[in-house]
Amino acid sequence: MMKQVRSPCLCLILLAVTLTAGAQGSGALGITAAPVKVDGVFGDKEYSFVSETAGMKLGLTRTADLLYVALSAPTTGGVAAGLGSAKMDGAVMYIGYVNGNTTELKVQKGAGHRHADTDTDSPRQYAMKETDGQTVLEFVVKASAVIAKGQTSLDIVVAMGGTDSFVSMHKARGSLTVALAE
């Protein structure tokens, strides 16, 4: 009879490979003429780029001037999408939650393992909805604020929490690098 041995290191390696594989996305994010309706609903085929990471679904659409972002997460707590870094440190983070009929959103900059309010451009528009244990955050920002001329990829970090809070620890997080096409 063989004895089964489980290695914690092997489990962590398999988890990392699984998260990376789940974050591959659907090709490069190109420029399109079609804007997105920012209504807090993440519709099928609404976004030109869709990827899943850490159990959350991320959608992106880029026009000549704007970047539309959607994050859908299986939580009734807060959600966050950070642009410009594959980790919280250095990312401009859009953190929000729904509490009853009220939505709350903050734009913060990650510094190390913390984040604080920043003077960066606020989203031009945002909407949030919480339905059947799923929270959706949609927002639109000026593309040039997060994508420099000639930039070939965009790093993004996402997270979800278990409570309606800007400071509680997240219960899941993930990151991905999105290839950019002209």
Structure, described:
- This protein has 182 residues and is mainly beta.
- It has a single domain, classed as Sandwich (Immunoglobulin-like).
- Helices cover 10% and strands 45% of the residues.
- A 6-stranded antiparallel β-sheet has the order 7-6-5-4-10-11, with no helix packed on it.
- The chain is globular and about 40 Å long.
- It starts with 7 loop residues before the first helix and ends with a strand.
- Residues 1-25 have low confidence and may be disordered.
CATH topology: Immunoglobulin-like
The poorly predicted ranges are 1-25
Shape: globular
Rounded Rg: 17 Å
Number of strands: 11
Provide the helix percentage. 10-25%
Domain tally: 1
CATH homologous superfamily placement: Cellobiose dehydrogenase, cytochrome domain
Q: Could you spell the SSE succession in H and E letters?
A: HEEEEEEEEEHEE
Q: What structural category arises from helix and sheet content?
A: mainly beta
Distance between the termini: 59 Å
